[in-house]
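# nightly structure sweep
# worker-07 picked up a monomer target from the shared queue
# config: single-sequence mode, recycle default, output format = structure tokens
# input follows
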Amino acid sequence: MRELTKEEKAELEEIYQHYLNDEKIKRMNDIQMHRGSSCYIHSFRVAKLCVKKASRRKRYSMQNLRDLLTAAILHDYYLYDWRAHRELKKKHGRRHPLVACSNAIRDFNISKEVQDIIKSHMWPLTIRLYPKTKEAKLVNRMDNHIATREALTFRAFKKRRHEKYIKMISHLFDE
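# output follows
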């Protein structure tokens, strides 16, 4: 089991806070996800869980963790409401990883590794875009995990829960 140093945690927290406070990323708050959760909250929950799982393993280098964190935050950076457009409803699941990747390249100039993680996060729905790296597989699994939890939440999404999630995602590492 690997323990992150204070410097590594500080670097990852800095990346996390950079995206958390970015105005372009905050537009994801206007996009509804599963059962009323916003795309913004969903993405940061996925990122937080990915880093938590990966930091427990020795096989993730610091560069792997940076790429993992960035990709997990940007994996649903598609910036459109697919529910509002009838023609997008059928294609959204297969199409949005490519749109999210394209938007992330345009707005954040992401690396090839991060692009591959974003493009493959909806596998097996995107059958040709298999997650090849351990980071891509982890984002895929944690995205499914968080999406399932959100979808199985039967209570309507209330302002109180939204505030709870905003507080929960305010820092990468729990204080």
